[in-house]
Design goal:
The chain is of the alpha+beta class. The protein contains six helices and 17 strands. The strands form three sheets. It has an eleven-stranded antiparallel beta sheet, with helices on both faces. The chain has a four-stranded antiparallel beta sheet with strand order 4-3-7-6, with no helix packed on it.
Length: 408
């Protein structure tokens, strides 16, 4: 399906959706010609010999009939209340492939004897592409709902449900060797459109309670595909960190009548000490209680619940401001000879939840790194891994001073 060409004054992004060979959705977001005008269309058919992903599982010898594909499950920890998805099929996902066999790269033109390539995007080029993850931790299976729960081993304590969410991959560029920080603002603007589009669509899926768009960058973070990409998870539950923030925000609302996230931003702007970047619509700051060796938050100056709620002006500004922030982060650490060290990081968009507590949320981006020096990682110690009791190796003021120092 191809949306109509953009109207004058609207963002020059064309959205084209199709279906992959195994039934997964793929969406192209184009900002270049001849595609953005509709003069040409990306390849929409998927020639791979993939079976439908919901095909019943083959029976074991002697079994009477195939078993229905049930998808991943999740179990509730009775000690914390946390839901833990269990997706054993992810053990077989692609791990650090060669550049010429990366499944996120565009398809290679067919030559004699090469009719099949297991890449996920059928066209030989693309601007931004989003598709359902082939190895998802969360997946909605037709006919299976969150109500189809059970007890592990028949014990009431151990509640289990289908992990009925959705996981999508966002390819930022067709260039395998690029990175987000190296993209042009116009391409980042397209990515923002994709984030907003997918957030809105995923929030409408049945049973979804939270949508989280994020990027993992660097082998130190555990990235298994170095191609520039991010992910979007649609959770069928509220994640533990968000639940903790909702609890704090509800208590703050009860005491003051105000939004906690808005008050935090206002306090950081008043203090100014940890503010590292300001624009017309956005403020970047190191939080006063930062826990990571490098951590910075980026928030809109206006109260906004989620990415779809951003105005065109805020999206335009974000495309420029976010790039500046990432480029500073890539200058945070240097080798002894002065060479900048590309920062491994996790960047995640915290958005308002879908249901109860939505009005307590406020959009903001958190970027953090496990790198504590040019060649040293922060490993979580016993109290951090075992008790979630963080101990910082630096101070927020030092982090902020360095990010202010590396501004060009």
């Amino acid at each position: 399906m191809t949306d109509p060409a953009p109207t004058p004054g609207a963002p020059r992004v064309r959205r084209t959706a199709t279906t992959m060979a195994d039934g997964r959705e793929l969406v192209y977001f184009d900002d270049s010609e001849p595609y953005v005008s509709g003069a040409a269309t990306r390849r929409l058919d998927d020639p791979r010999p993939l079976g439908d992903r919901f095909t019943p599982v083959s029976p074991s010898p002697g079994a009477p009939a195939p078993a229905t594909f049930a998808g991943p499950e999740m179990r509730r920890d009775p000690l914390t209340g946390d839901w833990i998805p269990m997706a054993s099929h992810r053990m077989n996902r692609t791990f650090l492939p060669a550049a010429d066999s990366c499944p996120l790269c565009p398809a290679r033109p067919a030559t004699a004897g090469t009719t099949y390539s297991d890449g996920e995007i059928p066209d030989t080029d693309y601007d931004v592409a989003v598709f359902e993850n082939r190895f998802p931790a969360l997946m909605q299976v037709p006919g299976v709902t969150l109500e189809d729960g059970w007890q592990v081993d028949g014990e009431e304590l151990w509640a289990a449900r289908p992990a009925a969410g959705r996981c999508e991959v966002v390819c930022f560029s067709s260039d395998h060797t690029s990175s987000f920080a190296e993209l042009a603002p116009s391409r980042v603007r397209t990515i923002i459109e994709a984030w907003a589009d997918r957030t809105a669509a995923l929030q409408e899926l049945p049973g979804i309670e939270q949508v989280f768009a994020f990027e993992n960058r660097g082998k130190e973070i555990g990235v298994t595909l170095p191609h520039p990409h991010g992910q979007i998870y649609a959770f069928p539950y509220v994640t533990p960190r968000t639940q903790a923030m909702l609890t704090q925000a509800a208590a703050h609302r009860e005491r003051t009548g105000r939004n906690l996230h808005a008050d935090v931003l206002a306090a950081e702007r008043r203090a100014g000490t940890r503010v590292v970047l300001e624009s017309e619509h956005w403020t970047a700051y190191v939080p006063a209680a930062a826990r990571w060796p490098v951590e910075v938050h980026l928030a809109p100056n206006r109260d906004v619940l989620d990415l779809p709620g951003l105005t065109d002006a805020e999206r335009d500004d974000l495309a420029v401001t976010y790039l500046e922030l990432l480029r500073r982060l890539d200058r945070f650490f240097v080798e002894q000879d002065g060479t900048a060290v590309p920062l491994p990081y996790i960047a995640g968009w915290h958005q308002a939840v879908v249901g109860e507590g939505r009005d307590l949320g406020r959009l903001h981006l958190q970027v953090f790194s496990v790198l504590r020096a040019a060649n040293k990682l922060k490993y979580l110690a016993g109290v951090e891994s075992g008790m979630a009791a963080w101990i910082s190796d630096t101070t927020p003021e030092r982090i902020a001073a360095r990010l202010q120092e590396v501004a060009l």
